[in-house]
Amino acid sequence: MPNRTEQLKATYGNPFDVLKAVERAAAQGYESLSEDDLFMCKWVGLYTHRNEQGYFMLRTKQPNGFVTPEQLETIADIAERQNRGYADITTRQDFQLHWVHYTEAVPIIRRLQSVGISTLGACGDVARNVVGCPVAGVDREEILDAGPVANEVSRYFLGNPAYANLPRKYKISVSGCTTWCCHPEIQCVALVGAQRRVSATTRGGSASGGNGESEAGFDLRVGGGLSTQPFISQRLNAFVRPGEAVEVIRHITELWRDTPEYREKRHHARIKYLIHDWGLARFRQALEERLGRKLDEAPSDFQEPPDTYRDHVGVHAQKQPGLYYVGAPVLVGRITSPQMRRVADLAQRYGDGKTIRLTNRQNILLLNIPESNVEKVLGGLAEIGLSINAHPVRRSVVTCTGTEFCKLAITETKARSRQIVEHLEKRVPLDEPLRLHITGCPNACAQHQIGQIGMMGSKTKVDGQIVDAYDIFVGGQMGRGAAFNHPVLRKVPATECARRLEQLLLGFKRGRKERESFNDWCKRVGDAELVRLLTEGGTHPLADAEDVPSPQVPESDGPVY
Ligand code: SF4
């Protein structure tokens, strides 16, 4: 017996037609939207707000994080006129607008379409925004510019009714860089840049991408994902040429779409479970049967990169001589209309007038800036509070939506994250990057499992009152040896978190050996010492905090991620 969501999807018709129901509601009233309509609204990027009936969150799609100044100005304008003056940058390199009134949803979506922004499939059981390296095409060390491939993959799935009823959300990354900043380790399907020597047998097939004795393409990974049960994606040991990317991802998607047993339970309806259950050999065989050919073998010397941290903030030389890109930290991803307008203006005035990018750390980049203009861009960014001279935690913090808007949230996140960052900036001078991820419930939209420090929303009791709390995790590692972090302290009252992280980080600064990383230090000193540092001198000692079971939340369809 299919679950209710599967029944609804099977009978609703074209899910993208829900926009007609929203349009009708503008004339007939919010009540004319049925529960089914409201559920299907996700397929056009609309999510109902937590408390405010009649208001939605609207998510855009920005494949590979690509944004033009015109698009940014349009979002600034919509946000200012209709959405309380700000937008949130997400971990999938797109935008979320809040406070979208149901009567204005369709006009806003049409306005976005007029500048080339789609919201189709930004949420729902579809291929979500295709993420990639935000400096694709300009990175001096990239193996290949994968931006066009990411765009091609995105175009193939965008609004395509054949892929509008997948078992659940479905996440793709396509990148050609060497540092994996878009986290292919946690995607359902990921193509990562790979260089392969061209032998006599493979040369015949290397019509495109050939480069003398080697060709650039992709190493294929499958089965990653976070949420309540995280998995690291695995290499399928296959090499995919740029021209084959759509074909291969299409067949993987169809294989997944057409395996009905994973539709029975929503929480089990992710390709990571299929890969786990089947194993790579069976999956590869099934994929090759669909492709009607063998996949090429991946290069035998392929290596996953070390866990290099790269948030792209600051001034960086591009591979194009004389040109630079500038990355600006956007605290908790929330950017105001005046900031968006100014960034668009800086890109037009001092850059190439067309290239802005969003990162999965919720920051924003301006590309193709001649050296003579770099200082002007930096001055302009500093004037609007986006100085590149930012504390590592301001640069790195990633935060989900939380109780402000998200119906599944246990804790407030954005304001708390801001308070934590401002506290640490004043008290803990750090000269090295640190990945801090703060998420409001186990659904992990802010990817807390990959943080060197991760925080997950919970509840506890202080002085008889139930209050927001966080579980604190340490040690998340990406790249070679990728591993999720582990919990060291549960149910820390939210008001205590900033000070406890201060104590932890000061302990790290005092006790680390020369150039020892935070993760290595955590491993060396052990959890007991981390707990001691986290708990010493608490005004609400954790031993006194009564245990309050955390609310059970259903699996999210991803308000942020
Ligand atoms: Fe909402 Fe996702 Fe954050 Fe949970 S993790 S509070 S579902 S945005």
List keywords for this structure.
561 residues; alpha+beta; Sulfite Reductase Hemoprotein, domain 2; Sulfite Reductase Hemoprotein, domain 1; Alpha-Beta Plaits; 6-stranded mixed beta sheet; 5-stranded antiparallel beta sheet; 17 helices; 21 strands; globular; binds iron/sulfur cluster
The distinct ligands, each listed once, are: iron/sulfur cluster
Strand content: 15-25%
- Report the sheet with the most strands, covering strand number, pairing sense and barrel closure: 6 strands, mixed
| Low-confidence blocks of residues | 203-211
Oligomer: single chain
Which whole number gives the mean pLDDT?
Answer: 93
Q: What's the number of structural domains?
A: 4
Count of β-strands = 21
**Cα-atom Rg, whole angstroms?**
23 Å
The percent range for helix content is: 25-40%
- Give the overall shape, derived from the CA principal axes: globular
User: Class of the largest domain, according to the CATH hierarchy?
Assistant: Alpha Beta
Fold-level CATH name of the largest domain:
Sulfite Reductase Hemoprotein, domain 1
What topology emerges from the helices and strands here?
Blueprint: H1 4-11, H2 18-28, H3 35-40, E1 46-48, E2 55-59, E3 66-67, H4 69-82, E4 86-89, E5 95-101, H5 105-114, H6 147-157, E6 172-175, E7 189-197, H7 200-203, E8 210-211, E9 214-222, E10 234-240, H8 245-257, H9 271-278, H10 280-291, E11 296-297, E12 314-317, E13 323-328, E14 334-336, H11 337-350, E15 356-358, E16 364-370, H12 374-383, H13 392-396, E17 398-399, H14 414-427, E18 436-439, E19 453-462, E20 465-474, E21 486-493, H15 494-511, H16 518-525, H17 527-535
Parallel strand pairs: 6-7, 17-18, 18-19
Antiparallel strand pairs: 1-2, 2-5, 3-15, 4-5, 4-14, 7-9, 8-9, 9-10, 10-11, 12-13, 13-16, 15-16, 19-20, 20-21
Helix pairs in contact: 4-11, 6-8, 8-10, 9-10, 11-12, 14-15, 15-17
The protein binds iron/sulfur cluster (SF4).
Iron/sulfur cluster binds next to loops.
